[in-house]
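Hi P.,

Sorry for the delay on this. The queue was packed all week, but I finally got your sequence through. Input first:
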Amino acid sequence: MSPKPVHDAIVTQSPGVGASGVADQYSDGKAAKNWQLYIGEQDGRTTNYKTFLLNLLKQKKAQNILDAACGTGVDSVMLIEEGFTLTSADLSDKMLKTAYKTRWERRREPKFFDWEIEEANWLTLVQEVKKPIGGFDVVLCMGNSFPHLLDDHGDLRDHKKCFQNFYSMLKPGGTLIIDHRNYDYILKHGRAPKKNIYYNSKHISDIKTQVIYENNVPKQITLNYTMDVEEDGDFILSYQP
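Then the structure:
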């Protein structure tokens, strides 16, 4: 099925569950329900991911951060607990429900009371998220979110627009941090690498990788996850890196 732009919304090709920042892969609420189990337990993430990110932010002397693909807010919460000031945005209202709930439950803590959360589209980010005076120190787009953005027009215009919007939210000299899977490795070996600094789940029992070609050029990569959980935790992630 061909992707279609809808009122500048970011649309995916897969009916499965996607990374943060993509609307229709979250529409059934399944991703939000299984997200914490998918990315891995908190202690594991502390070892494999938290130290990396905190060191990078401290190196950049960051304080005011825009988490532009916050999903359920897991990274935002981690950074708020470390003393950073967060504005968090995502296009999925299902994922944001968890972030709103966390903010409400911890509202008596000043940093959480001041936590700004917005439903926002990368393509219209500057209209939907309030920019602080001077701009954000850092804009984050983590969780392999950006590769879900499709090149509907064949000239990367939407990607360029998103980058421009990220740039517009930054202060002069600010930093944009984007993470994504190693797609060169996937294309070379036909599978995702086992080591992953962001996802550290003990519940993933199998990952089936599919590379879709168009005119002999890799067009899309699909990862079919099987998770060892009590309820249905299987899902598909589709990317256009």
